[in-house]
């Protein structure tokens, strides 16, 4: 059976979407069958990054119970032309859809959780996906908590920004522990020196001390990633880029997890 990975964070802009997409691309390169779901209903971005302007059915409808997941998934395997298979399910970026989902009550969210949990059987089971990756909203939104509940592994993207460090620490101590989730940290956008193995180990000790949680990877702040303005999937288009290599190491670690 495959694995469900939720990519979450305390603060916004920590690199969840970048990580989700590039991790998906890394697994596809390895011949895996991957499904990436945009569960960031407050600020959907995968449709923009992948330049998919129109689709008949969104994940919003799936969670609403108005269509099955088959209708929502878009097959992008051809575009990525790798060994694996790649499907995405998108959140509707229309203002009306964002307002609509923001107004949902607790009862709706509970039903949505049921439908999210059902994906384990339908996608990992029946459809044979190796990885299901959830890109989430930052913080403690219902949709993010649902994603965490539904995941086998939670990757927490964090920076060394003070409020991010504090918030992440609280979430690690309260939220993820509460659901007994396997949680790993990715330190992103760092300016710490990670050029040598010794330096990397130093950073690792520091971060693990701060958060008391395992560190899955450290990603420097790359000017060219910023400059690309979300137009490039680095792992796909820049195989020699250091970001691609870091994602490769992260994927190795995930693949070796029980
Ligand atoms: N390591 C990095 N180096 C440079 N820029 C980065 C890095 N990681 C992410 N970025 C940039 O930071 C911005 C935010 O990244 P991204 O959208 O992936 O974050 P996010 O956590 O998904 O944000 P949100 O919470 O709004 O969904 C993007 O412009 C992205 O290209
Ligand atoms: Mg995002």
Q: Mind telling me which CATH architecture this is?
A: 3-Layer(aba) Sandwich
- What name does CATH use for the topology? Rossmann fold
Determine and state the CATH class: Alpha Beta
Query: Can you tell me the overall shape?
Result: globular
Overall tally of structural domains = 1
Largest sheet: 8 strands, mixed
Tell me the total number of β-strands. 8
- State the helix count: 14
| Quaternary structure type | single chain
**Corresponding CATH superfamily:** P-loop containing nucleotide triphosphate hydrolases
Walk me through the structure.
- Strand 6, helix 10 (162-178) and strand 7 (182-190) form a beta-alpha-beta unit.
- 41% of the residues are buried.
- The protein has one domain (3-255): 3-Layer(aba) Sandwich (Rossmann fold).
- It has 14 helices and 8 strands.
- It has an 8-stranded mixed sheet, sandwiched between helices.
- The protein has 258 residues and is of the alpha/beta class.
- Bound molecules: adenosine-5'-triphosphate and magnesium ion.
- Residues 16-17, 40, 45, 135 line the site of magnesium ion.
């Amino acid at each position: 059976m495959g694995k469900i990975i939720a990519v979450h964070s305390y603060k916004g802009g920590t690199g969840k979407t970048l990580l989700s997409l590039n991790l998906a691309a890394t697994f596809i390169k390895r011949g895996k069958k991957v499904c990436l779901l945009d569960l960031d209903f407050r600020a959907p971005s995968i449709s923009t990054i992948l330049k998919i302007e129109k689709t008949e059915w969104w994940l919003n409808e799936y969670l609403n119970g108005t269509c099955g997941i088959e209708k929502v998934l878009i097959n992008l395997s051809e575009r990525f032309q790798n060994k694996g298979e790649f499907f995405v399910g998108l959140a509707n970026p229309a203002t009306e859809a964002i307002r609509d989902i923001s107004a949902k009550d607790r009862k709706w969210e509970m039903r949505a959780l049921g439908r999210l949990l059902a994906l384990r059987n339908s996608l990992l089971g029946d459809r044979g996906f190796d990885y299901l990756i959830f890109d989430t909203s930052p913080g403690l939104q219902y949709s993010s908590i649902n994603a965490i509940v539904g995941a086998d592994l939670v990757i927490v993207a964090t920076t060394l920004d003070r409020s991010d460090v504090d918030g992440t620490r609280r979430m690690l101590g309260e939220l993820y522990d509460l659901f007994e989730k396997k949680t790993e940290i990715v330190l992103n956008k760092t300016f710490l020196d990670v050029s040598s193995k010794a330096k990397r180990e130093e950073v690792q000790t520091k971060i693990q001390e701060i958060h008391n949680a395992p560190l899955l990877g450290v990603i420097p702040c790359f000017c060219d990633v910023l400059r690309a303005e979300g137009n490039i999937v680095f792992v796909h288009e820049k195989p020699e880029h250091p970001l691609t290599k870091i994602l490769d190491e992260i994927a190795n670690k995930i693949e070796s997890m029980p």
